[in-house]
């Protein structure tokens, strides 16, 4: 099969190759998926660059997320799954067969039936961003009718955090850096969109909710002072990215807020929590609560360019088109 792969860490142009590799076969409890779209996330270029991953064993096909159709199953898998359209999650986590290829093989539970009516583009965008958003919201239990602040509402995690929080019954405010991103966050369904670069941003957020029940944080080093100003004893601030410089922790301000700080990395989230996220995400899709981001499509041959686009901060979702 044709695939993008790399044998060592480095820049995308230096190490990503396009060529023929063996077509995988599913083992016990696994399914093989003919990939339609491969979704790219920041974690993918960070792993390829060597920033967050260990040495490569032979070669690595990148990307965790995607959408496609099951065409072969291993022992122990219901034969009725053949022909099922599925969205994929964590395909490359500890495995060679990421989604940047014509076929991938994953454990059966990591190929989730995509509800009828949902687009392939939505399915390919779920995985890492939607599961991250779900964990940030559901970790300590989001109160129905509670208030949520999503930092960076125009990003993929921010997009799904807004929509999942609304589906869970919360009121949602979000921060963005400019008008185009504000339009995306509003289209996602945020009740309030605030440009954090403008004066009065904190006052506007305080009018929305004096204390936020949940803050989904993408850049704690930049936003900690605002988060604590909006925090209280019921507040949970969940950080899912290591953007920018590490924060200096103002112990007295943290004590005054009485807020809870949590840090999450998707790869070490307990399996039961991931499976709960998969169920909720699928239910939210079925309810029509989740929508696509703007899509940037690249052919497989331009995988290096597509990863560079994600690394450069492309707004929307970058997909490789495989079929």
Features:
single chain; 323 residues; alpha/beta; Quinone Oxidoreductase, Chain A, domain 1; Rossmann fold; 2 domains; seven-stranded mixed sheet; six-stranded parallel sheet; 11 helices; 15 strands; globular
Domain module count? 2
Oligomerization state: single chain
Task: Report the average pLDDT across residues.
Answer: 96
Say how many strands there are: 15
What is the molecular shape? Answer: globular
Which class of the largest domain in CATH terms? Answer: Alpha Beta
* Beta-strand proportion: 15-25%
Structural class: alpha/beta
Structure commentary:
The structure is a single chain. This protein is an alpha/beta fold. Strands 3, 4, 5, 6, 7, 14 and 15 form a seven-stranded mixed sheet that branches. Helix 9 links the parallel strand 12 and strand 13. The chain is globular and about 55 Å long. The chain starts with a strand and ends with a strand. The mean pLDDT is 96.
Helix/strand layout:
Elements: E1 2-5, H1 12-15, E2 17-20, E3 30-39, H2 42-49, E4 65-73, E5 85-88, E6 103-107, E7 111-113, H3 120-125, H4 127-138, E8 147-151, H5 156-167, E9 171-176, H6 179-188, E10 192-195, H7 201-208, E11 214-217, H8 220-229, E12 236-239, H9 251-257, E13 260-263, H10 271-286, E14 295-299, H11 303-311, E15 317-321
How would you concisely characterize the structure shown here?
The protein has 323 residues and is of the alpha/beta class. The protein folds into 2 domains: 2-126 and 291-321, Quinone Oxidoreductase, Chain A, domain 1; 129-267, Rossmann fold (3-Layer(aba) Sandwich), CATH 3.40.50.720. The chain is built from 11 helices and 15 strands.
């Amino acid at each position: 099969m044709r695939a993008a792969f790399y044998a060592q860490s480095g820049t995308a142009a230096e190490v990503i190759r396009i060529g023929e590799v063996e077509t995988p076969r599913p083992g016990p409890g696994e399914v093989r998926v003919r990939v339609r779209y491969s979704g790219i996330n920041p974690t993918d270029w960070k792993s390829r660059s060597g920033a967050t991953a260990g040495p490569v064993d032979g070669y690595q096909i990148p990307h965790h997320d995607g959408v496609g159709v099951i065409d072969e199953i291993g022992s122990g898998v219901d034969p009725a799954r053949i022909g099922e359209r599925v969205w994929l999650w964590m395909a490359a986590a500890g495995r060679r067969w990421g989604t940047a290829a014509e076929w991938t093989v994953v454990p059966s539970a990591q190929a989730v039936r995509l509800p009828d009516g949902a687009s392939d583009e939505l399915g390919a965008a779920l995985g890492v961003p939607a599961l991250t958003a779900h964990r940030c919201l559901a970790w300590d239990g989001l109160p129905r009718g509670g208030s949520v602040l999503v930092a960076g509402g125009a990003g993929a995690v921010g997009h799904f955090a807004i929509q999942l929080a609304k589906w869970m019954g919360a009121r949602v405010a979000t921060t963005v850096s400019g008008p185009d991103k504000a339009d995306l966050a509003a289209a996602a369904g945020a009740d309030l969109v605030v440009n954090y670069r403008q004066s009065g941003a904190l006052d506007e957020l305080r009018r929305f909710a004096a204390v936020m029940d949940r803050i989904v944080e993408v850049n704690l080093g930049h936003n900690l002072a605002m988060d604590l100003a909006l925090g209280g004893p019921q507040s949970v601030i969940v950080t899912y990215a290591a953007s920018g410089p590490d924060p200096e922790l103002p112990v007295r301000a943290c004590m005054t807020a009485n807020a809870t700080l949590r840090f999450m990395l998707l790869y070490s989230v307990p399996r039961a929590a991931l499976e709960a996220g998969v169920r909720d995400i699928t239910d939210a899709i079925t309810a029509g609560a989740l929508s696509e981001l703007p899509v940037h499509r690249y052919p497989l041959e331009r995988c290096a360019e597509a990863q560079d686009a994600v690394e450069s901060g492309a707004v929307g979702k970058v997909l490789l088109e495989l079929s």
